[in-house]
Amino acid sequence: MVTRYRCTACGNLTRFDVVTTRRTRAFHHYTVGGDLRVEDEAVLDESVDEVTCRWCGTGTAVERLDDATVGATAGDDGASGAGAPEAT
Ligand SMILES: [Zn+2]
Predict the structure, then answer these.
(1) Which residue spans within 13-87 are E strands per DSSP?
(2) Which of 12, 27, 59, 60 would bridge with 39, disulfide CB 3.0–4.6 Å?
(3) Does 32 have pLDDT greater than 80?
(4) Which residues have CB atoms below 5 A from the ion given as ligand 1?
(5) Cβ-contact 24, 43 below 8 angstroms
């Protein structure tokens, strides 16, 4: 799931600086020579600390969009499968 944002001051929907704190676990795979390759990184915990609008330069008017707001046009109109035959 993708978290989306909107700046209510300028209408920006696409350009934000996002500061995130993330705790991860990863497999650090070294060669004998000491080169590191990080593999299988998994996010254990993640929190967004600050979201700033790139256009305004402040985060005071930035709001997070809910799924309900974003997907408002994709609702189903409650068509049900009434009348399905019942095998006895
Ligand atoms: Zn803005």
Answers:
(1) 16-30, 36-53, 62-65
(2) 27
(3) yes
(4) 7, 9-10, 12, 53, 55-56
(5) yes
